[in-house]
Structures are given as C-alpha cells and as structure tokens.
Amino acid sequence: MKHVIRMAVAVCVISLTAAAQESTRVTGYLVDKMCASGMVKKSPADAMDRAAKHTRECAMEKDCAAAGYGVVSDGKWIQFDSKGNEKAADFLKHTKQTDHLLVDVNGSVSNGVIAVSSISKAKTAPHKAPKKTGA
Q1: Cα(66)–Cα(107) distance, integer angstroms
Q2: pTM for this structure?
C-alpha cells in the first residue's frame, strides 16, 4: 500500500511540475524594468499606450539595460529571466524599430517571470485593454 501511495504522490509532483513549465507565447511591448514599473501603475489601456511609445534608445541606456527586460501585455508586466534579458538585448541591438517594440515571447511562466526560449518581432497587435469611460 505504501508503494502505491508513493507512486501516486510521484505522479502528482511530476504532473504539477510539467504543468508549471508549459510553454506559452506572450505578445507585448518590450520594455526595461525601470520604465515598466511606472507604466503599469496606470490603467491597463494607459500602460499599453505608454509601452508602445517606449523607445529602443531608452531601453538600451546603461541603467535601463542593467535593470533587465520584460514585456507589457494586457497592461501587465511580465519579467524576463536572465537568458531572456540577454535575448532582449540582442533583439534591441539588431532591430531597426525605434519604438512600438511589439514582440512575441515564447517560454514558460512561473511566479511572474518568463523563462524565455525566443523573442521575435510580433506580426499582430496585442489585445488592448478597454479604456474606462465615465457614466
């Protein structure tokens, strides 16, 4: 009986680990952490507008680059892991775009951080959060 329980626990642990590591694709604007922290304090629609206007030049500044990168998607910030930061820096170095740095990021998300497997220029616009209107 103990053997059956141990096997059941092992299967559950393996299943939960696999589910947490599922690959996902996130579309959003590539932004450094320093700038993103101010953007996401606004409404989701404002955050997306500000992220779209964020420039390549700003993201590549020494302090901004040192803070790390991530994406603003649906008005929320998703931070990159260390390999993702390297991939983002390489993407910024080689892109000709100066703003509207819309990217598709593939990887697995855990605790608000995405372990990035790839970053590429997005082909479609991200979902924009609706703007709130007064009644």
Answers
A1: 21
A2: 0.77
